[in-house]
TrEMBL record:
<feature type="domain" description="AMP-dependent synthetase/ligase">
    <location>
        <begin position="132"/>
        <end position="320"/>
    </location>
</feature>
<keyword id="KW-0436">Ligase</keyword>
<dbReference type="GO" id="GO:0004467">
    <property type="term" value="F:long-chain fatty acid-CoA ligase activity"/>
</dbReference>
<keyword id="KW-0443">Lipid metabolism</keyword>
<comment type="similarity">
    <text>Belongs to the ATP-dependent AMP-binding enzyme family.</text>
</comment>
<dbReference type="InterPro" id="IPR000873">
    <property type="entry name" value="AMP-dep_synth/lig_dom"/>
</dbReference>
<dbReference type="InterPro" id="IPR020845">
    <property type="entry name" value="AMP-binding_CS"/>
</dbReference>
<dbReference type="GO" id="GO:0005789">
    <property type="term" value="C:endoplasmic reticulum membrane"/>
</dbReference>
<dbReference type="GO" id="GO:0044539">
    <property type="term" value="P:long-chain fatty acid import into cell"/>
</dbReference>
<dbReference type="GO" id="GO:0005324">
    <property type="term" value="F:long-chain fatty acid transmembrane transporter activity"/>
</dbReference>
<protein>
    <recommendedName>
        <fullName>Long-chain-fatty-acid--CoA ligase</fullName>
    </recommendedName>
</protein>
<dbReference type="InterPro" id="IPR042099">
    <property type="entry name" value="ANL_N_sf"/>
</dbReference>
<dbReference type="GO" id="GO:0005886">
    <property type="term" value="C:plasma membrane"/>
</dbReference>
<dbReference type="Pfam" id="PF00501">
    <property type="entry name" value="AMP-binding"/>
</dbReference>
């Protein structure tokens, strides 16, 4: 009798969770992954020098030196090859980044990266050279226009580099996967979410110089790709290619990126098969990001982390404040704190301060202004609507509309 009662209670609890929280299982798994990532980042940052993504790459090279790391234009580089070519200059530049640099002519004041790598020693630099490098130290700069103005150098410290590199781990990429990157490596999507994320996972990267809709699936089949990256209209371009009997002849199981339109989402799945779409949201310099781990069409996240919306005046590009000077609800803003810091732009204090909003809901608080209009439904899903400011997106890059208007007389 008592077992029947306990069984009934258990079934009732499960039914309650399913009805009241239909995404409980996915939420719970995602929460565990988030906790694990934060635990790892905290551990990597305890020492000085901190444990960096290049240390992770070196460990991967020692663990599986013969495994393919990079496939580029017919050349194959194992983890050992890439480490040998890049260790003397501080990274895997010899195999990955310099491959893209070969087509760049070096004007005065610019170093030819390929030549520098070829002439570098294969010996790893002494640890003493980075003895003062902490988890908060700058790791690299990525130029971005943000939501307005000319490109600015966003400061990416090692903490932020790790968080972005863990995106693949968060979405279920394993060491057995093969990643296809056809996005530019000067962009955070291709370099951070793509290349350094692959280094964190210890997987193989198939790198293409630029996106080609006609060659995309042939490349995936040839190299047995299982994970692809997209941005903006890439998926629409693939859907616009002529149909083929081999449309579903591939091993791709996961597509990771942002900007997937609702009308293209269903068309892509119907044509190319059961590929899991993982839509993401974030800004290179931002302190907040979302991952669509549920799989709902065009949604970018469930509301699991704190953020809010404020009203915004598109004419002045300033938040709307009440008589007390506090903000009213509207576009997405994220609180700046130790968990979600904002590093700003290198040597550009004015633009850094412009992205900060003070006294938003109470005197003394501080928020990051994403400049993005986000729609939230009653179930807590978010949907990107538009970007405030004078930028437009083309080929995965934000361009300043004001500067382009001055460049072209007809605009």
């Amino acid at each position: 009798m008592i077992y029947s009662v306990l069984l009934g209670l258990a079934v009732s609890c499960l039914l309650f969770l399913y009805v009241r929280f239909p995404y409980f299982t996915q939420d719970f798994i995602f929460a565990l992954r988030t906790f694990n990532v934060r635990r790892l980042v905290a551990r990597f940052g305890r020492g000085t020098p901190c444990y960096t993504i290049l240390d992770r790459f070196a460990d991967a090279a020692r663990s599986h030196p013969q495994k393919r790391f990079l496939v580029f234009e017919g050349e194959l580089f194992s983890y050992r090859d890439a480490r040998a070519r890049g260790s003397g200059s501080g990274g895997v530049r010899g195999s990955a980044v310099s491959a893209h640099a070969r087509r760049v002519c070096a004007p005065a004041g610019i170093v030819n990266l390929s030549a520098a790598v070829r002439g570098a020693s294969e010996e790893a630099p002494p640890l003493s050279l980075r003895r003062d490098v902490s988890i908060q130290s700058p790791a690299l700069y990525i130029y971005t226009s943000g939501t307005t103005g000319l490109p600015k150098a966003a400061v990416i410290n090692h903490h932020r580099l790790w968080l972005t590199s863990f995106l693949q781990r968060m979405t279920g990429v394993s060491s057995r996967d093969v990643l296809y990157i056809c996005l530019p490596l000067y962009h955070s999507a291709g370099f951070l979410a793509g290349l350094t994320g692959a280094m964190e996972r210890g997987i193989t990267v198939v790198l293409r110089r630029k996106f080609s809709a006609s060659r995309f699936w042939d490349d995936c089949r040839e190299h047995e790709v299982t994970v692809i990256q997209y941005i903006g209209e890439v998926m629409r371009y693939l859907c616009n290619t002529p149909k083929s009997e081999r449309d579903r002849d591939h091993r791709v199981r996961l597509a990771l990126g942002n900007g997937f339109r609702a009308e293209t989402w269903g068309q892509f799945l119907r044509r190319f098969g059961n590929v899991r779409i993982c839509e993401c949201y974030g800004a290179t310099e931002g302190n907040i990001g979302f991952i669509n781990y549920i799989g709902r069409v065009t949604a970018i996240h469930k509301m699991l982390i704190p953020f809010t919306f404020i009203k915004f005046d598109p004419e002045t590009e300033e938040p709307v404040r009440d008589p007390a000077g506090l903000c009213e609800t509207g576009p997405l803003v994220a609180k700046i704190n130790k968990i979600a810091p904002f590093s700003g732009y290198a040597k550009n204090h004015a633009q850094t301060e412009k992205k900060k909003l003070r006294n938003v809901f109470k005197k003394g608080d501080l928020y990051f202004n994403t400049g993005d209009l986000i729609l939230a439904d009653r179930d807590g899903f978010l949907y990107f609507q538009d970007r405030i400011g004078d930028t437009f997106r083309s080929r995965g890059t934000d361009w300043d509309g004001g500067s382009q208007a001055h460049r072209w007389d007809g605009v």
